[in-house]
Amino acid sequence: MDTVDPQRYHLTLTAGGRLLQQGWWASEATAHYKFSGWVGQYSGLHDARITLVDEQSEETLAVWPAGP
C-alpha cells in the first residue's frame, strides 16, 4: 500500500535571495492552488520568486515569474 507523503509538494517564496515563506502539501492539486494564490498575493513584492517542487521526483513543477 502506498503512503501519502504530507511533505511531497514544497512551495517556497524568496525575495532578495532570502527565504520568506514555505509550505508543504500532500496533494498536487492543493499545492498548485496555493502556488496561484501566492502569485496573486506576492506579485507586487520586489524581486519575489515562487517555486513549486515535487520533492519525491525532484521536479520543479512551477516557477513565478517565468524566466529564461
Structural features, described:
- The chain has 68 residues and is an alpha+beta fold.
- It has one domain.
- The chain is built from one helix and four strands, in the order ββαββ.
- Strands 2-1-3-4 form a four-stranded antiparallel beta sheet, with helices on one face.
- The protein is elongated.
- The relative contact order is 0.25.
Number of folding domains?
1
The arrangement of helices and strands along the chain is EEHEE
DSSP, total strands: 4
Portion of residues within helices: 10-25%
Largest sheet: 4 strands, antiparallel
Strand order of the largest sheet: 2-1-3-4
What is the averaged pLDDT score?
93
Distance between the termini: 40 Å
**Class of secondary structure makeup:** alpha+beta
List the helices and strands and how they pair.
Blueprint: E1 9-15, E2 18-25, H1 28-42, E3 48-54, E4 59-64
Antiparallel strand pairs: 1-2, 1-3, 3-4
List keywords for this structure.
4-stranded antiparallel β-sheet; single chain; 22% helix; 68 residues; alpha+beta; 4 strands
